[in-house]
Amino acid sequence: xxxxxxxxxxxxxxxxxxxxxxxxxxxxxxxxxxLRTKLSExxxxxxxxxxxxxxxxxxxxxSTISQIDPHGIKVMxxxxxxxxxxxxxxxxVRTAFxxxxxxxxxxxxxxxxxAEIAASQAERDRKRVDAExxxxxxxxxxxxxxxxxxxxxxxxxxxxxxxxxAGFPRYVLQSFTPKLSTLGTVDRYDKTWSLEExxxxxxxxxxxxxxxxxxEKYQVMLIPVGTYSYTAVSGARKTVRSFAxxxxxxxxxxxxxxxxxxxxxxxxxxx
Length: 271
Fold this sequence. Notes:
This protein is an alpha+beta fold.
């Protein structure tokens, strides 16, 4: 049982601290087994208690009362759950239920406040779910767009850093050979793959952790993500095209670049 500090001080001051205060007088909410006990006590203590008023054209049965609080009673029957405020009951019934106008008013305000908080939280949850769904759709669409930009290549490693590897690509070429039907019309196209005759002199950079050595060749999928700058052996600063080897990594690199661009724009606006 929760007892407020003000209540404890009141009982100490009046010399009644040795007696257990009536929990209903403290604004207790009765449910379940406690509710059944409380209703039984009320009925036994008030033999001549009038019948409860009608609700939606039918008398309120004691067995349908599902909760008692300082503001009124909740009734749960075949028509649903309804709240009957004590103000709608007779003075004798209100007295039997321990009605206190101030506590009833405070409880009603608390219920309204709790309802507003619950509605506000529900709205925030709805917006959060909507935002998460929009983000999920956007990420899926971005991944699909990145996947369409993929290329394949054989890379000869030039050097390796903590961020990835740089090397000379020899791109995989895709070609389609028409297959004719007996009537001389194109029946289908057979897809074939081949490497470029020789690797170019362009250096590219691929992000990721690679267990490779300088000069080694390996096959890789390339998804463009921007550029990468490094300092050559000659001391010159060079910038080359950069790629990711997976769609997920490409998306994260693109997002990181966008965040940095937004930071730069915000910094310029402050100046």
